[in-house]
Amino acid sequence: MDWTDRHCRHLHRLLTRHGLLFTEMVTSAAVVHGDAERHLRFSSLEQPVALQLGGSDPVELAAATRLADAFGYAEINLNVGCPSDRVQSGRFGACLMAEPALVADCARAMREATSRPVTVKCRIGIDDQDTEESLDRFADAMVSAGVAALYVHARKAWLKGLSPKENRTIPPLDYERVYRLRARLAPLPVVINGGIEDLDAAEAHLRHVDGVMLGRAAYHNPMLLAEVDRRFFGDPGDRPDLAAIMQAMADYAEAQLSEGVRLNAIARHMLGLANGRAGARQFRQILSVDACRPKAGPDVFRRALAAVEHAPLAAAV
After folding, report:
1. Fold for domain 6-233?
2. With contact defined as beta carbons under 8 Å apart, do 61 and 53 qualify?
């Protein structure tokens, strides 16, 4: 939430043609009772893209799914992994792992509302649950509901005592538990998530599971996505370089600015593009400061690129 908006997804699609992108999580209530067009619209250039819904009312989730169906998402995902207090108070997210029968009813209702794949994203457990018994019970309920795949964050969520940020790092990772789940559920696809920092780690996981989900690593170091197509999808096409990406984003920004979008709404997703290169610090400064100035335009992106291209080699940060 607040990260993978349509501007972020446009950038990431420039870097990988084949990787599946996810929207921010949007609640079924916001879709059904709010501005569905604002929440659901996306560019066809982002495809393949999955819509991520949050909710616990089967009727409302089915209605949100029917509305989303018209937008043509590649997949509709129910998030049962988010541990935030706001999510818990709305009775959705990770707290629903204690109610597998309800989640199954939700997934079943969503499936009946679309012909598109319906998937579920979860944790390996919550609080004091036994991750062997409880995760198997949850997964079996999802299988009975006919979900197309499970995305599993390989950590528990501690709903009491840890903040959402702490829940991303403090509960220990248990990749082996996800591997066992995948072996048990095969041929149902199981995708692993959590603490995966680079493509070498992703490749190692793929010996045990069907897919790998990258979150913060892909966001904070987006250029790693430029290797995804060649390495995992057998696409021998040219690897996009920083200059081409910055020019494409300048063109995109020009079109978006004409529709009233502020430049910093786009630039904030680009700060990590030059990580590890000479001039990276100045690159980030230009994007984070100059893009916020009144009437900032696409030239900010070109100046940020120039800071990297003309930087002395010793300036890498």
Report:
1. TIM Barrel (3.20.20)
2. yes
Q: Decide: 141 and 173 in contact? Cβ < 8 Å.
A: no
pLDDT digits (tens, 9 = 90+) for 21-73: 999 999 999 999 999 999 999 999 999 999 999 999 999 999 999 999 999 99
pTM for the full predicted model = 0.93
Q: Map residue 100 onto helix, strand or coil.
A: helix
Q: Do domains 6-233 and 242-315 have the same CATH topology?
A: no
Note the maximum CA span of the chain. Answer: 60
Question: Nearest 5°: CA angle at 144, between 139 and 150?
Answer: 40
Active site residues: 82
Q: Return the CATH number of the domain spanning residue range 242-315.
A: 1.20.120
In the structure encoding, which two tokens stand for residue 142, read together? 């999802």
Distance between CA atoms of residues 284 and 135, nearest Å: 42
How far is it, in rounded angstroms, from Cα 280 to Cα 239? 20
CA dist., res. 188 & res. 35, Å (int): 35
